[in-house]
Amino acid sequence: MLDIKFIRENKDIIANAAKKKHIDFNVGELVDVDEKRRFLMAGIEKRRAEQNQANDKIVHAATDEERNRLIDDMKEVKKALENDNESLNEIMKQWQLLMLKAPNIPDISVPEGKTEEDNKEIRVWGKKPVYTFETKNHMELMTAHDLADFERGVKVSGFRGYFLKNEAALMTHGLWDMAVKMLIAKGYTPMIVPSMVKKEMLLGSGYLPHGEDDLYHNQDNEYYGGTAEVAAMGFYSDEIIPREKLPIKIAAFSPCFRREAGSHGKDTKGLIRVHEFFKVEQLILAEASHEVSEKFHEELTANAEELMQMIGLPYRVIIQCGGEMGLPHVKTYDIETWMPAEGKYRETHSSSYYHDFQSRRLGIRYLDADGKKKYVYSLNSTMVATPRTIAAIIENNQEPDGTINIPEALAAYVGKKIIGTKQRVPRDTIHE
């Protein structure tokens, strides 16, 4: 959420932000509603002052006749005040909804564009594996080696359900452990956070109202978060953080749930797009400085890249264009990992910063050097998401004989270096 004073004074900037993000938002409508809100609030304040003055006069009235006259006058003021409050309540509903729809301002480095085709590649790491045989996708490989059970996953969990087994389960635990230990060594506080969160936490972090269709919730209107970021941000909601505690760095783990609304027909099989998954999420709360946010944004992305390099997965980093960014984001990097069976990169990580967009909604502030209360600036990034990363490991490490090499960094967690049995080449086929 942006400061309404800033919006009023910078209408063109907000309008351009909505245009760049391809968001349907009329800043003029918000300003008009805000004028009505301010007018009504001023009127209510004036009538309340009149009430207070009249009450004082009634207490000190010299005669009963004067007291009764003042009481009759106050009945009209009270009625007018009630009408104004009713009008203000209606205006506030409109105002709050429009404020929630106002987009954050993208950084100048964010490229123009509407779809993922307009994202900008900024670097590539690793070599795409070259195969002299027909590659198999992760579903075929994992089924053949008893690493996953998709049929029973659907039987138990429904559409997009899955079970991970054996070496795939061990690699998954290994990835979580590696990610958390790496972040602890870099000064991050490990947390296991709730996956069930209040609606206010999703509104605060910017996932509502626009993301409603992609979220699960129960009959008590409690929501299941799509990322650990939501609960981790909520941890400090409505608090004032001492400045000396900044920056706060968190490594948050949780199950995550997404309905994948709007993606019917896409990735209906396998582990790329599932309803339930797991993430180690990085989150930073920092002082209100754009330069500091830029620095930490690069740090978060570098942390995720370091883990990817440790497990040897080829990837590229892109900057999301304006139309691909979410409402709260100032700038977002995606890490896209090479998937050999598809012959293309697929998104596995997202790294973003928001300035005070989230912290204003959640009421997270700190005291600056002058003792003034300011809203913190927030950032977050995927450190690792499973099972999508497991799918990438399986596909990128397949061999002609159907075996799968386990990345050296994960071998200790699995207790072996190869999944499957290497096929020996018969002696008479060897040419010496």
Write the layout of secondary structure elements.
Blueprint (H helix, E strand, L loop, with lengths): L3 H6 L1 H10 L6 H33 L4 H38 L18 E6 L12 H7 L3 E2 H8 L5 E2 L1 H20 L3 E4 L3 E2 L1 H7 L10 E2 L5 E2 L3 H7 L5 E2 L6 E10 L18 E11 L3 H21 L4 E5 L11 E9 L4 E12 L1 H6 L2 E3 L5 E3 L1 E10 L1 H9 L7 E2 L2 H7 L3 E2 L13
Parallel strand pairs: 4-9, 8-14
Antiparallel strand pairs: 1-11, 2-3, 5-7, 6-7, 9-10, 10-16, 11-12, 12-13, 13-16, 14-15, 17-18
Helix pairs in contact: 3-4, 5-12, 7-13, 8-9
Can you walk through the features of this model?
The protein has 432 residues and is of the alpha+beta class. The protein has 13 helices and 18 strands. It has helices at residues 4-9, 11-20, 27-59, 64-101, 138-144, 150-157, 166-185, 199-205, 228-234, 290-310, 357-362, 388-396, 408-414, and strands spanning 120-125, 148-149, 163-164, 189-192, 196-197, 216-217, 223-224, 240-241, 248-257, 276-286, 315-319, 331-339, 344-355, 365-367, 373-375, 377-386, 404-405, 418-419. Strands 1-11-12-13-16-10-9-4 form an eight-stranded mixed β-sheet, with helices on both faces. Strand 14 (365-367) and strand 15 form a beta hairpin. Helix 3 runs antiparallel to helix 4, helix 5 packs across helix 12 (388-396) and helix 7 (166-185) packs across helix 13. The longest helix has 38 residues, at 64-101. The chain is elongated and about 110 Å long. 37% of the residues are buried. Residues 427-432 have low confidence and may be disordered.
